[in-house]
Design a protein that fits this description.
36% of the residues lie in helices and 11% in strands. It is built from five helices and eight strands; from the N terminus they run ββαββαββαββαα.
Length: 143
């Protein structure tokens, strides 16, 4: 059975995510729900779930390599993923992550989580209000 035809028969017990392979679900459980971050930056102590994410962080944050441009506004990014996210949320106006408690909607799930903490849970600590917590983990934003 090819990858697109695989059934997603492994459902996470903690959220609605489903996976085609048990190993993918286990990785999801450990990184998303248990907070596993085995790959630590030796420069700034940021922690990542995969070596690939740590390498991207090093390249973009510490080496300043942001060589991919948005075709519409020329903002620069360090990965194709962030160009795509930028295009969808900024230029297409996608706001797929909707708050269950009010009418707010956000382009990134992490912005929704921050909104819930700050507005509805009224959590205000140094981690919640830092720029690092609202930016994608290895992408400081467009330049």
């Amino acid at each position: 059975m090819s990858a697109p035809q695989k059934r997603k028969g492994h459902k996470c017990d903690h959220c609605d995510s489903t996976f085609g392979e048990a190993g993918s679900m286990t990785f999801h459980m450990r990184t998303v729900h248990d907070g596993m971050r085995d790959h630590k930056c030796q420069v700034c102590d940021s922690e990542f779930t995969t070596m690939q994410h740590l390498k991207r962080h090093m390249r973009v944050v510490h080496q300043g390599l942001k060589d991919l441009k948005c075709p519409e506004c020329n903002a620069t990014f360090g990965s194709r993923q962030y160009v795509r996210i930028h295009m969808e949320t900024v230029h297409e106006g996608r706001r797929d992550h909707k708050c269950q408690q009010c009418d707010s909607a956000f382009g990134l799930k992490q912005y929704l989580r921050l909104h819930v903490k700050l507005v509805h849970d009224k959590v205000r600590d140094h981690k919640t209000t830092s720029v690092r917590s609202v930016s994608p983990p290895s992408e400081p934003g467009p330049t």
